[in-house]
Write a sequence for this structure.
């Protein structure tokens, strides 16, 4: 794609960073071990994929008693886990990132905690895979200097493309090149890319996030833990993904399929815990739990076919993604949260609560839902 091509022009983006006053990267905080054995007597609330649906996320946080009418932390000593995928598709991912960053501090001062985990779409953003960035997300980064910045960037990539064509003895049309550039480089594109770079405002923060957290023996993770990855353990999974994304987007595209952060059975992409047959795959799930020293895994990433927070494998897995964004992406989707208090599991919706302890027996497995087109194999 053109965006992948332009992202390879590292020098031009570095120059743009200077124009925007970009700084140097900070050392990432190593919280891998601390996040893998959290003990608490407080309630834990988890929410899954928001994909830019700011208003619906705020509504469900309010329904869960974690924020007030001014979107300020009101959860006291509670723990909030957001399992990733707040970016892409929807309009307001920047507002969600800003909210989570602010709630981290507010919760900490109140004795609570916010664990904002990575999803595959945050990893894609850092790697430079921008296929699912919405027009509104680009627009959120627009400034008064955006058009001038884009023009300066254009001159650099134009010179680069023209030089490559000359070296290869190929014809080159600046007119067609500019038309393609303007079509695929919307206003705000450069600012967004720089913001998610290693030394960017959001890139720095995301590269310090965990992939997995274990609280009272319950694992929270975006995609899931596959049989192949489980032996790594929580701390190594967090450290490996963090290390891989540290150098993004300067990653050889040929290496992406082998990275833990982007491989199909990796923790950000794996869908087996949401899609495998509950009877035949149960022994694998039990082995995964034993390997992780866990009693349950809570996953997002794959929208539950019934649109509800869904226990699977007799309550050993909870599928939390209910298509919060709704609309054309997830018709009939809704905002939801999972509350864990004194060992009791409750699904929270905007209009009601549902006791999940009554529906934790394994059911006949439904036919697997179609895998969305954002799998690693889909146009990577």
């Amino acid at each position: 794609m053109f965006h992948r091509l332009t992202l390879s022009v590292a020098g031009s983006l570095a120059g743009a960073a200077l124009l925007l006053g970009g700084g140097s990267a900070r050392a990432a905080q190593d919280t891998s071990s601390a996040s893998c054995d959290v003990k608490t007597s407080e309630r834990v609330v988890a929410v899954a994929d928001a994909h830019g649906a700011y208003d619906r996320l705020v509504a469900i946080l309010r329904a869960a008693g974690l924020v007030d009418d001014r979107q300020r932390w009101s959860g006291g000593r509670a723990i909030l886990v957001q399992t990733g995928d707040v970016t892409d598709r929807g309009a307001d991912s920047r507002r969600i990132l800003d909210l989570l960053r602010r709630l981290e501090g507010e919760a900490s001062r109140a004795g609570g905690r916010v664990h904002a985990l990575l999803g595959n779409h945050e990893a894609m953003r850092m790697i430079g895979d921008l296929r699912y960035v919405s027009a509104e997300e680009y627009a959120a980064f627009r400034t008064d200097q955006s058009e001038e910045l884009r023009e300066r960037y254009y001159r650099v990539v134009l010179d680069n493309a023209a030089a490559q064509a000359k070296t290869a003895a190929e014809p080159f049309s600046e007119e067609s090149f500019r038309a393609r550039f303007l079509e695929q480089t919307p206003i705000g594109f450069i600012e967004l890319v720089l913001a998610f770079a290693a030394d960017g405002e959001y890139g720095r923060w995301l590269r310090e996030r965990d992939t997995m957290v274990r609280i009272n023996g319950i694992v929270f993770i975006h995609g899931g833990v596959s049989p192949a990855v489980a032996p790594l353990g929580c701390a190594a999974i967090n450290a490996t993904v963090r290390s891989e994304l540290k150098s993004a987007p300067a990653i050889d595209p040929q290496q992406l399929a082998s990275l833990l952060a982007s491989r199909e059975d990796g923790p950000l992409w794996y869908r087996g815990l949401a899609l495998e047959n509950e009877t035949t795959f149960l022994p694998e799930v039990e082995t995964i739990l034993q390997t992780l020293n866990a009693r349950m895994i809570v996953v997002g990433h794959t929208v539950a076919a019934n649109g509800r927070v869904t226990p699977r494998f007799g309550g050993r897995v909870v599928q939390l993604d209910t298509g919060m964004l709704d609309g054309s992406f997830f018709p009939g989707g809704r905002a939801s949260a999972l509350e864990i208090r004194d060992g009791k599991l409750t699904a929270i919706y905007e209009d009601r609560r549902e006791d999940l302890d009554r529906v934790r027996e394994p059911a006949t497995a439904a036919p697997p839902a179609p895998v969305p087109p954002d799998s690693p194999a889909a146009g990577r």
